Structures are given as C-alpha cells and as structure tokens.
Amino acid sequence: MKNLFKIAWRNCWRNKLRSGIVIGAIILGVWSALFIMGMMNGFMDQRVDKMVDLELGDIQIHTTTFDSNSEITNVLTDVDKLVDAAKSNDKIVGYSPRFVTDAYVMSAHGQRGVKLIGINPELEAQTLGLEPRLIQGTFLDSELSYPVLVG
Predict the structure, then answer these.
(1) Which of 43, 48, 114, 149 has its CA 20 to 30 A from that of 143?
(2) β strands within the chain, DSSP E
(3) What is the Cα–Cα distance from 148 to 134, expressed in whole angstroms?
C-alpha cells in the first residue's frame, strides 16, 4: 500500500504543469461553489426578512386549511376574541386583522391572478409600515369609498 501511494505521488508530479492546472481548477471550483452558496444564503435570508417585514409579520393566525383552501368562505370564527387578546397582551406591539383571497384582474391586455388582501389601514400602518415605502400617492387616505393600494 505504501508503494502504491509513493508511485501515485511521483506520477502526479511527473508533469508539473498538468498537476498545477488540475489543482488550480479544483481550488477555483471549490471557491466558486462556496461563494455562490454564500450569496444564495444571503439572498434567501434577505428575502425571508423582507417577507416578514412587508407581508407576513412575525405571527399569523388562520384556519388550518388556509394554505390549501383559499376560498372566500374559509374564514376564522370569533375574530373579536382574538383581537381582544391581542389588545390586552402588552408584549404584542401591533396587530392587524386581514382578509386574504385569490382573485383575478382583467384589462384590455388580458387577465392575471392576484392576491387580494383586505386590511384595516390604521392597524396595518402600525404593523408592517408600508406607508413610508410609498413612492407615489397616499396610503389609503382617500375620500373614495374603497381605496386600493397596488404594489
């Protein structure tokens, strides 16, 4: 066994240029893979943070079939009890009841599936802080009956 390693080691260094190119390619490949994995982990962490900050919040309470059944009738019962519990808990900084369902938007160019989220503007402003991120317009402070925020 010792002789086999000795012969293999000598064979590796018989052609130094070839061995150097192979070693360089291995180092470059490992470094590139680590760099790409680090970038992807950073992107994923940033995406999760943005989703929590702008859309989800830290905690959600919904029905057990919410993920698989997005029908308009799939709603929580006793929402007032949950809201009262959130108001009375001093560890909860902000809360916002929402209505979430899938919908379609139609225009002259076609139709698209969208996520329709009904919110309470005052409570939502303290929960996710979307208002400072607006580029144009106002955060649902309209004189209209049913203002819409498109993003």
Answers:
(1) 114
(2) 98-107, 110-119
(3) 13
Range 15-18, long-range pairs (CB < 8 A, 24+ positions): none
Q: Rounded to an integer, what distance in angstroms lies between the CA atom of residue 80 and that of residue 86?
A: 10
> For 111-149, what is each residue's pLDDT tens digit?
988 888 888 777 777 777 777 778 887 777 767 777 777
Is residue 52 within 8 A of residue 58, CB to CB? The reply is: yes
What DSSP designation does 65 have? T
Ramachandran region, residue 65 (left: φ > 0; alpha: ψ -120 to 50; beta: rest)? alpha
Q: Looking at residue 142, what is its pLDDT?
A: 66
> What is the distance between the alpha carbons of residues 21 and 28, in angstroms, rounded to a whole number?
10
